[in-house]
């Protein structure tokens, strides 16, 4: 029911929905295990971040509150409209730039598949579309991050429903030049080998991978798909973790010395894994 109401708000009451998003996002932050609470350890005030797959602006909201400059990428035009209504002052000041495109390893056009009522699960991968889920389709521009962003980037949040490796391939120069800290959503149900493919791209650049369970960090070597990404741990729609269950789909990759130092200061036992 809540997802249906959100979908109606996105479509028919975008200005109202944009204001309501602040309430939704503050509720998320009240969960001590939410990844938004890691942001002060991952990026400093005054730095620049990319929010890739910005959706309605959850991470953009908290990054801006931390005085981080944000480059937000969102291909769904309904959600771009929400972002414009939600952050007009930040856009006017230049603290937020919106890019209404999808990112990949090539330039061109693609089809975005948006499940009705579940815009956060929108995907470029037609193989993930199932006959039992009603979909909207939108033609979107494809860009490479290296072709769009010229400034130094200290942090990237990446949530693109199975397209993670291709986005990273299209950001090769930026990754090598800046070594931004990354928070990446990767799920085996979207693409088998998703976590390993991201690690394979980043490890040669000096990145260490981490995941968090019950608020505690663990090295990526301890991640077990069968244990940590059980489909049975999610609701029928695949949008929420069931009470008492564990489902890990967000991973931190860190190469910068300052970010490693902040994480090690918070969790001293982590130092040997960084």
Spell out the helices and strands N to C. Answer: HHHEHEHHEEEEHEHHEHEEHEH
- Which CATH architecture would you pick? 3-Layer(aba) Sandwich
Any idea what the CATH superfamily is called? Answer: Vaccinia Virus protein VP39
CATH level 3 topology: Rossmann fold
Mean pLDDT: 92
Q: Ends: how far apart? A: 42 Å
Structural class call reads alpha/beta
> What is the 3D form?
globular
CATH top level is Alpha Beta
The number of helical segments is: 12
Kindly provide the radius of gyration, computed on alpha-carbon positions and rounded to a whole number of angstroms: 18 Å
According to DSSP, the number of beta strands is 11
Q: In percent, how much strand structure appears in the residues? A: 15-25%
Tell me about this structure.
The mean pLDDT is 92. The protein is of the alpha/beta class and 274 residues long. It contains 12 helices and 11 strands. An 8-stranded mixed beta sheet has the order 3-2-1-7-8-11-9-10. The chain has one domain: 3-Layer(aba) Sandwich (Rossmann fold).
